[in-house]
Write a structure and sequence with these properties.
Blueprint lengths: L8 H18 L15 H34 L37 E4 L1 H24 L5 H41 L1 H33 L10 H23 L9 E5 L2 E10 L4 H14 L1 E4 L2 E11 L2 H4 L14 H5 L7 E5 L5 E3 L2 E4 L6 H11 L6 E7 L5 E7 L16 H9 L17 E2 L6
Parallel strand pairs: 3-5, 3-6, 6-8
Antiparallel strand pairs: 1-10, 2-3, 4-5, 7-8, 7-11, 9-10
Helix pairs in contact: 1-3, 2-3, 2-4, 3-4, 5-6, 7-10
Length: 459
């Protein structure tokens, strides 16, 4: 059947399939780079191409939303409540992230390095663009269907749309994450070269641990160790020596902290309370209360008959007070984060807004707009307490595609290494009690760039 102004359904779907195959097979990349960007570093040029691609996709998404909303108004108005306009993410002052539930992973991924790069972000955009084209074709198809059949399809498309908005937000998070860390890498390649060497050692150690597990299974499968395959004991011994050496190096670089002077320790019978003063200019008191509850509920544990916990003392400072000598930023305005942080009093942590992506800088949690889970917030707060990331961030140079940000987790049980799978450990509180202050690490610097940013989902 032909619909005026459109190709036959079978041809449309074949055309969409061919387009998606070509795009996903090659990766989207602008053919014409403006001359004004030719002198820019590769990571900036490639980032601009991806940003332009994202803007095109966002327009496509908005057009699809309008078509879907129109179809629902005509045929199933009761489903309109499932839709929400695809407003662009705002990376501005007083924009608050949604706090979402923690996700329990199905398995621990150990000996694996995660990478973030512009070509992968491009592929995420291509994939979503193709899915929108397929859904738009279905919207056209329902014009020829009975009202009962069309309503079923509209309900499915409306429910799918909610997931599309989440994926759009995740793509935006990928873009901001790449912009943030690729710029940091470009600013200090030498430090990230050292970090990449440590990254490789962490990966090697995790692979050795997996190998030792396999060797133990082989040994257990034999009648006794004397009947084990020839040389197995020597191989295992060599691997254990190498693993011990790597563990010592990695621990020396990662397992250190410098507790801030404003943390006060209060000792009660069988209980230690670590009080942390914090200033915030966030006007939403309920949101601030939820942050406090999330952090305090995670940063506590009982070890035998002894209990340890964090208690936040949060003080609100209005923008009027912070900017008493100049014009205050208004909600929705872009701000200079470093200058903004400089207006808060010393002697406490800071909780504020206005970042591209949530990160910790100068004992401040600076919130970005993307949703965040309580355990990730608790991980960020760990940086306020003086803990380093337990994962290691390095990079690979991709030439014209900029940098690939490489990250590997050193210990999936430690919240500072793995916010999704890790927990607060007794060693965290032991280190706080000891107030260990050791020389600066040889991995990526902390003084000029944030210690951590929230990672977007890889999917």
């Amino acid at each position: 059947m032909l619909t005026q102004g459109f190709l036959p359904l079978s041809i449309r779907f074949i055309s969409i399939g061919v387009f998606c195959f070509l795009v996903l097979g090659t990766g989207h990349q602008s053919s014409g780079t403006p001359e004004s960007t030719l002198s820019s570093p590769a990571y900036i040029q490639r980032g601009k191409q991806v940003q332009e691609h994202y803007q095109t996709y966002s327009k496509q998404f908005t057009g699809y939303y309008e078509s879907l909303a129109g179809a629902l108004r005509d045929s199933a108005p009761e489903l309109l409540s499932l839709l929400e306009a695809p407003n662009p993410t705002q990376h501005v002052y007083q924009t608050l992230p949604t706090i979402v539930s923690d996700v329990t992973p199905r398995e621990h991924l150990r000996a694996r390095s995660m990478g973030y790069r512009w070509p992968w972000t491009d592929r995420l955009i291509d994939r979503e663009s193709c899915e929108i084209m397929r859904s738009a074709a279905e919207l056209q198809r329902i014009k020829a269907l009975h009202v009962t059949q069309s309503r079923s399809i509209l309900e499915r498309l409306a429910l799918d749309y909610r997931h599309r908005r989440k994926r759009q937000s995740n793509i935006d998070a990928h873009i901001q994450y790449n912009r943030f860390w690729q710029a940091a890498i470009a600013a200090d390649r030498a430090s990230y070269d050292r970090a990449m060497a440590l990254h490789n050692e962490v990966l090697e150690r995790l692979e050795i641990l997996d190998g030792l597990k396999n060797l133990d299974r082989v040994s257990e499968g034999s009648m006794n160790r004397a009947n084990a395959p020839l040389g197995l004991a020597q191989i295992a011994g060599g691997l254990r020596k190498r693993e011990a050496l790597l563990a010592h190096r990695i621990s020396g670089a990662i397992n250190r902290m410098q507790s801030p002077p404003f943390v006060v320790t209060e000792r009660l019978p069988h209980e230690w309370i670590f009080r942390v003063p914090m200033y915030t200019d966030i006007e939403d008191q309920d949101f601030v209360a939820s942050i406090k509850q999330s952090i305090e509920s995670i940063w506590q544990l009982r070890n035998g008959e002894n209990a340890f916990r964090i208690e936040l003392d949060i003080s609100y400072l209005s923008p009027d007070l912070l900017y008493v000598d100049s014009a205050k930023p208004i909600k929705g305005e872009n701000i200079n984060i470093l200058r903004h942080l400089g207006r808060f009093p010393s002697g406490g942590a800071i909780l504020t807004t206005g970042a591209l992506t949530t990160h910790v800088q100068n004992y401040a949690i600076v919130l970005g707009p993307h949703s965040i889970a309580p355990r990730v917030l608790a991980h960020e707060f760990g940086h306020i307490l003086g803990f380093r990331d337990g994962y290691v961030r390095g990079y690979r140079n991709l030439g014209k595609n900029g940098f690939q940000i490489m990250e590997v987790v050193s210990d999936p049980n430690d919240i500072m290494a793995a916010p999704i799978t890790g927990v607060v450990l007794p060693t965290h509180f032991e280190m706080m009690l000891n107030r260990s202050i050791k020389p600066n690490s040889q991995i990526a610097p902390e003084s000029e760039i944030p210690t951590h940013t929230r990672k977007p989902s890889r999917t």
